[in-house]
Specification:
Layout: H1 2-10, E1 16-17, E2 29-33, H2 38-52, E3 56-58, E4 63-68, E5 72-74, E6 77-79, E7 81-84, E8 89-93, H3 104-117, H4 142-151
Helix pairs in contact: 1-2, 2-3, 3-4
Amino acid sequence: MILLLLVFLVGCTGTISTPATTNITTPIINFSPDSLSEQGTRKSLARWLAASGIGLGISEVGIPITTQDDWVYVEGKSNCGNMDFTNREIVVTMKRYKCSYFSFDSLILHELGHAVAGVGGHSKTGIMTEGGKAENRECIDSASLELVCRSADCEVFEPEPCY
């Protein structure tokens, strides 16, 4: 497990898939990040795997993750990012000065949570809060994991230690 996390954090090329336990019933979800979001995507996938046990990977034929210089507009409202369930894609902004996330990686972590859960809802705390405006907003806490695991078939339930 430690070696797998190291591979995701350091990065490598090609198709990467996290190993699945023998009991996983959820199919592996693949993502296809652009070059600006690849490192953050790898880190985020490793964190979601550790917390949920859901097999996640990077592949050319995965859900696209793209970055853009402008805000992400959803129903006329500017956002830092969006998981578009209709088009099956994630779009995140490179504008940082109005995003309340501490890091670009945490913005990706949040949008990946929506993709893994298959829902657009938010939790009251943790990384899955709306706009990252809550206690422990950089952390996959129990509230964030509950949101994801309600819709996804999580093999484990291991919230991150939040500080």
